[in-house]
Amino acid sequence: MGALMTKHRYWLGTTVLAGALAVSVPAWAQEQDEAARQSSSSSATQTDQAVMVEEVVVTGSRIPRPQYEGTIPGVQVTSKDITERLFTNAGDVLNDIPLVGAGASLNGTNGGQTASLGVTYVDLLNLGTARTLTLVNGRRFVSNNSATIFVSGNETGSQVDASTIPVALIDRVDVLTVGGAAAYGADAVSGVVNYVLKDRYEGAEVNLIGGQTFDYQDAARYSVNATYGRNFLDDRLNVAVSGEYSHIDSVLGDQRDFLMEQAGSISNPFNGGMRNGAFSPGAVGSTAFLPSGADGQPNLIYTAGLRSYLTWYGGQIFNPTFSGLNEEYPAVAGLVPGGSANMPGFARIAAPAWSFFSSALQQIPGAPNLCNAGAFSSAAAAAAASANPRICNFAPSSLPGATAAEQDAIANRVFSFYNVARPTGATAAQVRAAALQVLQANNPTAREYFAANPNVPLNAFLGSFIAGLPDVANTGAFAGMLPRTAVPIRFDASGNVAAFSYGSPTPTTPGTAGSSVGGDGALRQFTNVLRVEQERYVANVIGSYRVTDNIQFFTENLYSDITVRNPFSSGGLFNGVTSSSTENAALLVNVNHPFLTAQNRADLAAAGITGNFTLSRYNEDLVNDISQESTMETIRSVNGFKGDFEAFGRSFGWELSHTYGKAETQVEFSAIRDVEFAMALDAVNVNGEVVCRAKAVGLNAYLNSFGASRQIPGIQPQIISQIGSDGVREQVIFQNNVTQQMVDNCAPVNVFGEGRASQAAKDFVSVRNFFKNESTQNFTQATLTGELFNLPAGPLQFAISGELRKEELAYTTDEVNRIGGTRSAPSATTFAEVETREGGIELRIPVFGGDFQVPYVGSLEINPSVRWTRLKGEAASFRDTSGTLRTPTYKGETENVYTIAATWQPIDDIAFRGNVSRSVRNPSIVELFLGGQPFFTSIPQDPCSVTNIDLRSNRRANCVSDVLAKAAANGGRLGSSTGGGLITIASEADATSFLASHYRPNGSAFTGLISGAQTLKPEQGESWTAGVVLQPRFLPGLMIASDYLEIEVTDALGPLLAQPAAEFCYDSPNFPDNTADVGVNSCAGIRRDSNFQYTNGFELPFFNLGSTKVRAVNANVAYSHDIEGTPWPTTIGFRGNAYYLLEYTQSASGTYEDATSTRNTLANPQLKLQLTALLNTGRLNARWTIDYQDSASIKSSGIPIGIEFQPIVSYPSYSLHRLSVGWDFTDSVRGQFVVDNVFDKNSLGAQGYYNDAYVDRIGRRWTMSLGMKF
Q: Which residues form the TonB-dependent receptor-like beta-barrel domain (predicted)?
């Protein structure tokens, strides 16, 4: 089927696809040779010359039509763009298109999610990668996304890794925004990306590509690809083969000087520390300091040169009990060893409770803090105040005294000593508040004291204001004010106790317990992975054979082998003093540990440590391989027949094909074994040899030493999956514990110093984990197209299509990971499949045009299409923890998707287009059938806390009700977290008092279980677009297109995480069953212990709830002009694409009552713009491209932050520049040179430098290619 078309009409088709920005002028037809292709693509003038253009299936429609017609706005990238930009990865082709979001890529580690290492997922409109449908030649591609929740962005859809697609064979990439679902079915909510490969290729071609950065001579990438195609059997058979290899080097943060500056934010010591010049002593409500939210001092400030002071490679040393300003919280991870000469008989020492360390504590407080330095508990504060005639040496944050009576006594002393009249007619609380303000007014903050005494050693402040650092009595000149002095010590690489410095601050230098400027702290940019390493092998065989003049067989066959390597994967490889996780908390050890020397003990004693201490260390030296590696093999085979026939005097076309795809991914990474690590730490000295205590005393005695539980403390029971005795998979609660084999293999580990563990110890405590994901896809599709009858304006065309698709996922892991034997949660085992049936019809209705002309109407065409999709599936049978046999099944309802599109061209110069669409995304296999995945989580903002309980109308009543219920289940009492013991709760008043006075969330992490849900329904997408295309005849070569688009996604699919689960529960008017609000009862999955603290056992499903609304304008302009009178044919061109975001609003509840806007942020800027200037003259081609992004606000919860939050409240606009120059040495040899980031733009000025807003951390780089054709 062919059509006669003028070049003018062809240009209109191009703008209808809106490819003006990201495309060069497209080639006329795929059968042209390259010379003709380049010639036509370099000429853009309008002419009356008729050109024969083959009708093909256009992306977004199944009705054959001229290649560049369509009603859905989008962008197109051609093979010429790919050649001149020197792309070596299909995912990179779309990265800089304005309407494409960040997605997943080789840059960074995709959020640290192991299963998504190095994948490249496209994200149209920044609505999420799961809502973009990726096609190859208009057909679905097997998904590479693993069957686990631990994937990039926790987006558990059917995403396709674009790295598997052969770059050398790409003819063009069509990117269509909203409106493709009616043609392709489910999942095309935000749009469609269709990689169209070259067809019936003839010739041979080899391309060599290589490059690296200019300044750093790193980030190397190189590629070679070759393509060979030939016709046989009198041109009835065409076979083309291609192969490509590419390699991309990894880049780490320590290879970039601007990152080695270690710039960042730190809490402002002066926030809340500005004096109130209008303070009136003794006046009720008058304050000595301005409120922290209105004192002109931001919460955060920015600086460079920051170092970390929480953990060290050989181990940083802390005191074992930190009270400070924190609640006491037991989180002991290490074991206190026995068995030294001082502790005969291998007796164990009871490990005391201790609280995790607060890294936010100010080294030198600039706001009211401790009344008397060194008094960290309420009892110590009261005692110090009683012994101090002035009551306080420093401006306190609270009035000393543990009880109201004690505070009243202190208040009386304050008014007497400072000669201030006691407020009259005031309440007791107001009197205490007034006394506190008097103390604050008459005593300095630590910063004010430092400013007056700049010679005070920093260690005196550290020891006196930060509990937990090793310290001794201060005997210096300032001992009266600062009674303690810190002795910062750690183990050096050789295992010696070594002193270190926190730096040399001035009175204005910021610094916290965890981070400060300068000194000897850790600088770990080598763990900052800027880009992972990738190695790709891709091979393709495509072919077609004309069986008859009307029937053609076609085949596409792909094999891809990709290896991605993260050279430094350190997740979980630490025991840190700030961790609230039992497994990762600092190690509690004793000075008599057998690996410590006499000199070690003497040095520790000099720092005041003669018993237990805690060790905070990085454990990367305890594994044999620090890297993480992912290998992914993909095969895909498409085979089918297509043809045309005549019937009833009309032409029809048909196609029948079957596609098979399989993707296998295996990821390997190192981890620390829980039980084995605890055993190896628990070492004793036997006859001069350090051995594991378990080996010295034997298994039975070792287990008995833990008491009745016979369990190593801190090793939590977990739900795992295993094969039962009858061969059916079952979920059981499993407690990992010591075995005889472990005892026999145990080798003691030396954690004092760096790299001091023996090889035997490393082999014992570490493991190389892996998981494997297998994804299989089979689908058959058929299409019938043709003409039904003639209308006055032309034939009414139709396309009928049907598809049967079956997809399977199998996710398995190694034995250690399966049972949760490391610091990662056990990996769920998932075996499931889904089957999708789809069918649709599309019409092309010419209303006006052709031979049916109406004045001032021109041409009008309507394109309605509708598609039906239905999903069903099931997972492998299993027994749950109660022993019940379950076979999860899903039978979805039939969903309708549709598009009603129209184009109207009243005159040749202008055309209008638009569409109204409905789309769906069906629940994925993971969302339906995830096999009970344990996870670690926390609820940082407890709705029932004193701070949050009144933020929503129903919270207080529901929290009170829950306290009553939990108390009733615990004998009518709950434990106090503020030191009050067991509290009797028999009434609402008791419960209210408990929440106000006896409940403080400890912020600890806990375990939960998230599972697939068979009650899910598809996501819904409602969208419409309206646009205009201008091609003025008075300015040949110019085209302008602009489209307004609007989409709302509702019933968003996602995992119900702990924080929103708690908020939905306690905010519900239907507590304790909020199914009516959110579709599932999130209250039923929440677990609290006898102290009302969140605890292990959360059970959370996937659910439908949230909504997102996007409104934007996508505008394109292109101009091309031939220059006359030059020695060579010369064409200049210009292209521009602007994506202007009008709205990006998200609602977790779906009602928009909780709406947050991320428009005008760094991730969703108001304006993204790409401009390209092109020149083609003789053998030379050149292009200069500018990618621009508008300035952006910094927001918190959707609201722009103010100066009180941080000094920088917005990011400046920026642009990146790219140069490409090519030269045809001969008709068959061609070279290209590309410079990316010409001006070496890395960060957004001081804002990016200090706030981690880096626009290109790789830097200015060059790429060169040599292409040869034969």
A: 774-1238
